[in-house]
Specification:
By secondary structure, this protein is an alpha/beta fold. Helix content is 31%, strand content 31%. It starts with a helix and ends in a 6-residue tail after the last strand.
Length: 274
């Protein structure tokens, strides 16, 4: 197997490499381990194979140990911050590297932010490190929440990031109505369903929603156009005034499937969200 082929089929989180080859393809897995160890002799200390899809409410995956140290906890470094994580019990993806830089760069001093699907706190901590803000950082996975708390300490942002454990729609509805200038929704599986709660979280004067989605698009179709159509179909009947100020394809996730992000700027909220 050549390096280019291996490159697309693994992620490195901290010092752990996670390869994605069909579980019955033992020969390929062996080659991938050898190649990774050769490419990153000092960086990679453990290699695992992903043996399930990313699944369930917590968006986690099952792993099979292949080589090196048999542990799933590591510290991942990104844009000068440190994220301690158990790669089998929490979601983390180095493929969000660009968004992890792009969104914090948009934040203005003094903003109040709600991250509805925080994982171990990557976006929340990166934002708090960049700007003087308050970030309410919600996750439903108790393990991710514990690592988030630890990561807040590790990165010295305890005054700015407030970790909250729970279902973000409940947390917003009961504690965080009309407080936010900006809402992050980095969970494509729930973003459309939870969009009314993101509206409810925004201040009366409006704000920005970072909306993540998965979109199917065949040849000739635009994944962005299709994502926009879904959002328009949800927001227009609610009487929300908004514009989609930015959009991009984050990555391809399979044949004809894409992860997309839209920045939705809401200028006024109908009274039912106040
Ligand atoms: C794709 S991950 C988020 C990734 C994270 N933003 C990052 O940058 O690494 C989605 C997260 O949403 C959490 N989650 C799923 N359903 C939720 C809900 N109803 N309320 C709050 N968090 C939820 C999962 O536990 C998971 O950690």
């Amino acid at each position: 197997m050549n390096s280019a082929k291996i490159y697309n089929s693994y992620d490195i989180v901290g010092d752990i490499a996670i390869i994605k080859v069909p579980s019955d393809d033992v020969e390929n897995a062996k080659n991938a381990v050898e190649e990774i160890m050769k490419l990153y002799p000092r960086r990679v200390k453990a290699v695992f194979m992903q043996v399930s899809a990313v699944q369930g409410n917590f968006r986690v995956r099952q792993l099979k140990f292949l080589a090196g140290e048999n542990r799933t906890v590591t510290i991942h470094k990104e844009h000068g911050c440190f994220f301690k994580v158990d790669v089998e019990r929490c979601y983390i993806s180095p493929r969000l590297l660009f968004e992890h830089k792009r969104i914090p760069a948009l934040v203005a001093q003094g903003e109040v932010i709600i991250n509805m699907f925080s994982g171990v706190g990557c976006f929340s901590i990166l934002i708090a490190k960049t700007t003087n803000t308050k970030v309410y950082s919600i996750d439903i996975n108790p393990t991710a929440y514990e690592f988030m708390q630890e990561n807040v300490q590790l990165n010295n942002v305890s005054g700015s990031v407030v970790p909250l454990l729970g279902d973000s729609k409940e947390v917003v509805n009961t504690q965080l109505r009309n407080v936010a200038d900006r809402v992050l929704m980095p969970l494509p599986e729930l973003a459309l369903k939870y969009l009314p709660y993101a509206l409810m979280a925004l201040k009366q004067s409006g704000g920005c929603i970072h909306y993540f989605d998965f979109q199917h698009a065949t040849k000739g179709e635009s994944p962005i156009e299709k994502t926009c159509q879904k959002v328009v179909k949800c927001l227009d009947p609610l009487g929300v005034h908004y514009r989609i100020g930015f959009s991009r394809i984050i990555r391809s996730t399979g044949p004809h499937w894409y992860q997309t992000v839209l920045d939705i700027y809401v200028s006024s909220l109908p009274s039912k969200f106040l």
